Amino acid sequence: AEFSGSQFATDHHQPGGGQIVRGLSRIAQVGHVFGGQQEQRGVQMAIQKAYIEVQTIEKSDDPKLFKEFRINSALNNRGQSLAINGLCKNNRLEVMIDSGSKGSRMNIIQITGHLGQNNVEGRRIQSEIDDGGRTLPCFERGDKHPRTRGFIESSFLKGLSPAEFWFHAKAGREGVINTAVKTRDSGYAERKLVKRMEDLTVLLDHTVRNSVNNIISFSYGESLNPTMMYNSDGPSFVDIDNIVNRLNATVPSNPEDDESAEILYEVRGVARYKEITQSVKEYRASIKSLKEKKGAVYKKLLNAARGKLKELLLEKKELEVEKLNN
Length: 326
Hints:
Layout: H1 5-10, H2 19-28, H3 30-33, H4 37-58, H5 64-76, H6 80-85, H7 92-99, H8 105-113, E1 116-117, E2 119-120, E3 123-124, E4 151-152, H9 162-197, E5 201-202, E6 208-209, E7 215-217, H10 226-229, H11 240-249, H12 258-325
Antiparallel strand pairs: 1-4, 2-3, 5-6, 6-7
Helix pairs in contact: 4-5, 5-11, 11-12
Pfam families: RNA_pol_Rpb1_4, RNA_pol_Rpb1_5
Enzyme class: transferase
Protein name: DNA-directed RNA polymerase
C-alpha cells in the first residue's frame, strides 16, 4: 500500500506521526523565541562597525603579528551581548544554560548572533590559492575584507553561505585532528615525565637526588613555596613584554557602547603597561634579593664539595705513594 505525506503526518497510528505537524509549527516560531528584528539589526550594526575598525587597523603601521591580534579582538567581541539579551526569559536553551545542565553563552551567540572569526593554526584563514592572492576562487584577487579571511557574520539560525560553510568546516577539521594528535602527544609526554622522575627523591636536606644518590638539584623548587607565591608580588619568570603586547591586543571591547570601548581600549593599554612596568622593577628587586640570600647557601655547598674533592685527591695521592713504596 502507498501512503501520502499528509496521510503519514496525520496518521495517529504511526509512532510519533501525530507530533510532526505540531513540531513544524513550533519550528516556525523559533525566530520569535530567539529575539526580534531590533536585536538582529543591532548585531548587524555592530558587525559593520567592526569592519570599519578592521580597515583602520589594516592601514596602521603596527607590526604584522600585533595587527592580527587587534583584528581578531575587533571581530570576535561584536554584538555578543545583543544576541544574549534578545532571548526570551522562557527560552529553553537559556534556562538550560542558566541551570548549568548543558551548553554555554557561546552556543547562544553562534545560534542567534554570528559565528565570528574562524582561525586555523592560530591565525585567520590564509590566502593559499592563486599565488597567495585569495582564500577561495569566489573572491576577487587581493580582497582583504574580513569575509574573505574566515569571518562568518551569519548564524546557525539564518544559515551559512557556501564560503562561510567552507571556513567553518576548515576550522572544525583542525579541532578534530588536534583532539586525536594532542591525546597521543600528551600521553607520551606524561609517560616520559613519569619515567624520568620515578627515582627522584627530596631528602631532609632539601636536595633532590636519584637512586644512586647523585644530586639533581641543591634546593627543591629553588626553595620557592608555590602556596606563598599564589596571588603575591613575588618574583616571576615570565616574558612580561610578550604578555603586555598580547593583553593590549586582546582587550575585549564593550559591545553595548563601541565608541567608549575604543577610548577604554587605549586607556587600559596605557594603564596596564605602566602597572606591569612597575611590577617588572619589583620582580627584578625580588630576584636580586633572592640571589643574595641563596648565594651564601650555594657558596657553603660549593666549599663543602671542594673540601670533599680535596680529601679524595689527597687519599688518591697517598695510595699512589704507598704503591710506589711497596
